[in-house]
Design goal:
38% helix, alpha/beta, 15% strand, 227 residues, globular
């Protein structure tokens, strides 16, 4: 059994996230996809939308199952629940949880190219490579040589890091939050379900100096936090 994990702050999830997950699933052909909104990202002090609302917005990913781009897809609130209990979110702990829940399964972790470049700063990154294959999708056109060189340094055997070709859709949730605060509905960037939740809850209406830019298409809650 192959399980593909795709995580991030998803504040909010956007079409770039959808595009990268679609590409990662095409590369891995998993039996199950787990979308995991982060509870507390070590890269940020917090999120603009609550964990519950980010979980709800992440149901937009089920459209990929409906179009048969991915198989069975689950949106998991596990990391959000951990954060509510005062626990830090680390990718290695999430992978250990999945390994225990699905013994014998082959685990795959989808990340963006920007996250690969900083991967050796992640908490227990060597253990992550033992637990799962990385599936790297490129956010920026022309960055492949840099990515492959980094992959060779991280994984000399060349067996644990895979690349998923994707037509890059450069966009970041932090930029979309600023545009939403300015009154732009971001219709071309946000799935319909996400736009409905944002409108219903009045999310992102005020721009409070949001300069906590984060890697958006990879695992936003996986590196060693700053203490």
């Amino acid at each position: 059994m192959r399980i593909l994990l795709y995580g991030g702050s998803f504040d909010p999830p956007h079409n770039g996230h959808m595009n990268n997950l679609r590409a990662a699933a095409a590369r891995v052909k998993p039996d199950k996809v787990v979308v995991m909104p982060a509870g507390v990202s070590p890269f940020k002090r917090g999120t603009c939308a609550s964990g519950a609302l980010r979980i709800e917005m992440c149901r937009c990913f089920s459209a990929l199952a409906e179009e048969q781009a991915v198989p069975a897809l689950e949106v998991s609130g596990w990391e959000v629940e951990q954060a509510e209990r005062g626990q830090r979110n680390y990718t290695v702990l999430t992978l250990e949880m999945l390994a225990a829940e699905y013994p014998g399964a082959a685990l795959y972790l989808a990340i963006g190219s920007d996250m690969l470049l900083t991967f050796d700063g992640w908490h227990r990154w060597q253990d992550i490579l033992k637990l799962a294959h990385l599936v790297v999708t490129s956010r920026n056109i022309g960055d492949d040589p840099v990515l492959h060189e980094k992959a060779k340094r991280l994984d000399a055997a060349g067996a644990r890091i895979l690349f998923a070709p994707v037509e890059a859709l450069p966009m970041a949730s932090s930029d979309l939050r600023a545009r939403l605060a300015a009154g732009d509905p971001c219709e071309n960037e946000l799935p319909p379900l996400v736009r409905r939740v944002i409108q219903r809850e009045g999310l992102y209406r005020e721009n409070k100096g949001d300069n906590n830019h984060e890697p958006e298409t990879g695992k936003g809650a996986c590196a060693q936090p700053l203490e």
